[in-house]
Amino acid sequence: MNAESVERKKTPRIVIIGGGFGGLYAAKELMHQPVSVTLLDRTNHHLFQPLLYQVATAGLSPGDIAQPIRHILKEAKNIEIVMEEVARIDVAQKLVITERKPIPYDYLIVAAGARHSYFGHSEWEQFAPGLKSLEDAIELRRRILEAFEFAEIAEDPDERKKALTFVVVGAGPTGVEMAGAIAELAHRSLADDFHHVNPRDARIILVDAAPRVLPAFEAKLSDSARKQLEQLQVEVRTGVMVKDVGPDGVHVGDELISTRTIVWAAGNAASPLAKSLGAELDRAGRVTVNEDLTIAGHPEVFVIGDMALFTHQTGQPLPGVCPVAMQMGRHAAKNILAASEGNPMTRFRYNDKGQMATIGRNRAVADLKVVGFGGFFAWLAWLFIHLIFLIGFRNRIAVFFQWMWAYVTYSRGARLIYGVFRPGRMPEPNSK
Ligand SMILES: Cc1cc2nc3c(=O)[nH]c(=O)nc-3n(C[C@H](O)[C@H](O)[C@H](O)COP(=O)(O)OP(=O)(O)OC[C@H]3O[C@@H](n4cnc5c(N)ncnc54)[C@H](O)[C@@H]3O)c2cc1C
């Protein structure tokens, strides 16, 4: 056997960074294949981000929407799971650099997702945390629930009013879901639990610089979403720019909206790991990828999911949603298997089945490509799809029963504030 055929016979080493939607679906495709895979994630769990807002608003517990990656892939003898943070990637040496040791690869799939972007105002984050991880959700839940506790003991009416005002910045799906869920929490679930304050007095304000809510949906569905939010008494302010965020509240145009609780759902930035690839990035830090999902000059490096800027199909970037990440994950894995067999790679094509956003009980919008609709049936469709894609049989059953119970009783089972409540203080900066 000559050196070349020995080289070809070597089991390819594949490193996947990230066990989110992209990384996990790539790993599943590589399961039981003649390749050796290392999946690195800085957390031990795969997180179902679409239901994070329910953890942040006390509807579900963290364990209901997360599953240990190790457990999901336990049957895959060719996949090693390593819980570790990646610091950077050395594409020239084909190494993934962690604090512990460099990890060599023949093929690399980068699927490290995105964080929030504060458009150059990172100092706003301490007052307006975003929602990407379980820690974020638990932190937001604390702030939201503490606001009601603070209102209950506040003696100054202005302080009480401030505590009962909630501002959500960004009217995309996450902002709409958060605003609707906080409204239901205040006006229904908590309504009768306090003696000195009426949670029904809470104001929930949703602001966005765009002219309409859910701008990625067609105008008819945006209008429907706005009406459904207003039925929940959410004040929707579109076409207004947030100028400042601080301990007093949010400056919108010339007005200060006085509040203790601000939720940031306005912008995304790809994982900073993108920078170390040396490839072209857009303003959101996403990596320009080729049609086969590799990066220029490196046919062995694939970037997928929220980190990838893929414009080959429509001329516009594909959206940062789960189906894009899942389909990219599978496709990158198939291309690696093809390349390792000496076969050509194929181009990626996104199969778009539509999008949905929920607004609250019986309220949602669904754009299923052939038909778009809002209201009860959109909400049912949303529930069904989210249960199907939630990973883990236990989680599906647990979430299903909690939703049924909440539907009947309006109660929220995860109203927990971890730590000591210090009413004298404003919400503290996120410890991360
Ligand atoms: C609140 C919220 C609601 C959403 N709702 C919907 C929805 O309803 N429908 C929908 O389709 N999409 C929704 N999305 C978007 C969807 O979740 C993302 O598009 C999808 O998760 C992207 O997958 P990904 O694999 O690129 O990244 P992720 O799923 O974010 O996974 C990234 C993984 O990489 C890991 N990681 C990051 N950096 C490092 C590092 N340096 N070292 C090691 N590991 C690292 C993370 O721990 C994480 O596990 C929502 C997102 C959010 C935040």
Briefly, what is this?
With 432 residues, the protein is of the alpha/beta class. Helix content is 31%, strand content 24%.
Structure report:
By secondary structure, the chain is α/β, with parallel strands linked by helices. Helices cover 31% and strands 24% of the residues. It is built from eleven helices and 25 strands. The chain has helices at residues 3-9, 21-30, 52-56, 69-72, 134-153, 157-163, 173-189, 219-231, 322-340, 376-389, 393-409, and strands spanning 13-17, 36-41, 45-47, 66-68, 79-83, 86-90, 95-98, 102-104, 107-110, 114-116, 165-169, 203-208, 234-238, 242-246, 249-252, 255-258, 261-264, 268-270, 287-288, 294-295, 298-303, 308-309, 355-360, 363-367, 372-374. The strands form eight sheets. A six-stranded mixed beta sheet has the order 5-2-1-9-21-20, covered by helices on one side. A four-stranded parallel beta sheet has the order 13-12-11-17. The radius of gyration is 23 Å and the shape is globular. The mean pLDDT is 93. It binds flavin-adenine dinucleotide.
Task: Indicate the topology.
Layout: H1 3-9, E1 13-17, H2 21-30, E2 36-41, E3 45-47, H3 52-56, E4 66-68, H4 69-72, E5 79-83, E6 86-90, E7 95-98, E8 102-104, E9 107-110, E10 114-116, H5 134-153, H6 157-163, E11 165-169, H7 173-189, E12 203-208, H8 219-231, E13 234-238, E14 242-246, E15 249-252, E16 255-258, E17 261-264, E18 268-270, E19 287-288, E20 294-295, E21 298-303, E22 308-309, H9 322-340, E23 355-360, E24 363-367, E25 372-374, H10 376-389, H11 393-409
Bound molecules: flavin-adenine dinucleotide (FAD).
